[in-house]
Design brief:
Layout (H helix, E strand, L loop, with lengths): L5 E4 L10 H24 L8 E2 H8 L3 H13 L3 E6 L2 E6 L5 H6 L1 H11 L1 H5 L16 H4 L19 H11 L2 E2 L2 H14 L4 H11 L4 E2 L1 H8 L12 H12 L2 H11 L7 H12 L4 H15 L6 H13 L5 H18 L26 H22 L1
Parallel strand pairs: 1-4, 5-6
Antiparallel strand pairs: 1-2, 3-4
Amino acid sequence: MKPIDNFSFVKNNQVSKDMTNLIRLYLPIIGSDATVVYQYLISFYDDGKSSHKIAEILNHTLLDLPHFEAALAILTGMDLLALYQDMSDYLIELKEPLTPKVFLSNAVYRRLLESHIGDVAVADLEMPELKGVRDISKKFSEVFSDKGEIDLQPSRMKNSFDLDSFKNRMAADGLHFDQEKQDVIALYNISEKFSLTWFDVYQLAKETASRHTILPKRILTKLNQPKKVSKEAFSQSEKIILSEAKSSSPEIFLAKIKRGRQAMVMTADEAKILDELAQMSFLDEVINIMVLYTFNKTKSANLNRRYIMKLANDFAFQKITTAEQAVEKMRDSGSQSQTKGKPQRVNKTASSIPEWSNPDYKDETTPEEQAKLDEMKRQMLAKLRKDGE
């Protein structure tokens, strides 16, 4: 956008010049620049009769171009106007601010306002609850025939995110937010950006939750994963590793590896490492591969913090989001390390996989030993979840 570019208004798009709701509800969120730009557009609306220069707005509002463009972005994001472009010309469609009742019924808008002016101030803006009265308003279908095309809805949201239903599901499944206000806004953005219903978002939130905590960044990682991943290039042992990594939680996966090293207890530091990796937006399947790779390299019965965090930084830099990508990274690193030493005849993946990934491996654990092991795992996970609450 340049100051010499032209803009015009959409015809027959006159909206109310009453700025009450704009100042009371929107100003704390959108800021003074966006408010001034909106007031200018309302005041100079000419029903689309003439073309104007962007410079006219800059001159009158005393804003420079970057601040003006930022204000336009905010106004479109809050649905106060729509901006269209035809080559270098722009077309502006004005929209009225929502009423307090509609605005505050939107969970995201309400929390944005609360984050700026506080819960008490927002509560003062609410309409009082009507008690002891009966709603006798007519429904649309009760007023118009089947051929009627008029929509009398005064306001319509771009996206309706049913937060109450979302939170009811959370309570039923024992999930919770880490930072509710920020998380709700992030979930709404995900819903709008990917055109998902609240239930779609919830399913992803449940799938990517870590220790019963919803982490929106992990949802984004899941949504941005490659859609198709070919498994033809993987050996049978690698396929077993991939299957285990995708079907096990990091706690269970770690317990299986420690069991192979005669270590049956997860340490507090190991539990903290897994939490930190989840907070870094890694999905469980990638965390599991990092855990496996770290144990292979450090030759210890306990997870080495320094090594796995170094590996995590490397994975984050290379944007590794799937177990398949992580296994390929393991394979490539193993190949590079072998070329530095003396030539050896080894299987290309033998040094990077645990014994239980061998297709011919037989688990000789007795039923009694397995039952004891499962009970220890159950107690360990229960303790970890209790400590995290």
